[in-house]
């Protein structure tokens, strides 16, 4: 088995859609970025690439490339899965933590798990998504941004 960790942060901004784990979440603000800025999927992709020793998403999908402007991060995740599949890796399980003061994410967690499990080609019982706040401390607590951590185990070929 191979383990990988990913971490990402995006700034909250008015006039953007909020997309987390591929799910659209109704909220007054969204995350700013070159792609759809799905911070949770970004952390997840970096965890997968980390476990496979295949670099990071900044290297694979540079934000200087207009091909990735406003792209759904789920499409990028599909590309990452193709790349690791070519090397014979499969996902064992994934655990994602989203850190946000607002909005309340509990109502969306089940849909997030379904979306990630489908894209990781694993049963839903092998994907965990959780949300926490930082007790109004720091940039997430002050609602300036949202961060995410992910840990992934890959099965080696
Ligand atoms: Mg990012």
Question: Could you write a compact summary of the structure shown?
Answer:
The chain is an alpha+beta fold. Helices cover 30% and strands 31% of the residues. The chain is globular.
Largest sheet: 5 strands, mixed
Distance between the termini: 9 Å
Helix-strand sequence: EEEEHHHEHEHE
CATH class: Alpha Beta
Give the total of beta strands.
Answer: 7
Q: How does the overall form come out from the CA principal axes?
A: globular
Small-molecule components bound: magnesium ion
The residue-averaged pLDDT reads 97
Estimated structural class: alpha+beta
Give me the CATH superfamily: 2-C-methyl-D-erythritol 2,4-cyclodiphosphate synthase
- Rg for CA atoms: 15 Å
Strand line-up in the sheet with most strands: 4-1-7-5-6
Uncertain segments: none
Describe this structure in words.
With 157 residues, the chain is of the alpha+beta class. The chain has one domain (2-155): 60s Ribosomal Protein L30, Chain: A (2-Layer Sandwich), CATH 3.30.1330.50. It is built from 5 helices and 7 strands. It has helices at 39-51, 57-60, 73-86, 109-120, 138-141; strands spanning 2-14, 18-20, 23-25, 29-31, 90-99, 127-132, 145-155. The protein has a 5-stranded mixed sheet. Strands 2-3 form a two-stranded antiparallel ribbon. Strand 5 (90-99), helix 4 and strand 6 form a beta-alpha-beta unit. Helix 1 (39-51) runs parallel beside helix 3. The longest helix has 14 residues, at 73-86. 41% of the residues are buried. The model has no long low-confidence stretch (mean pLDDT 97). Magnesium ion is lined by residues 8, 10, 33, 39, 42.
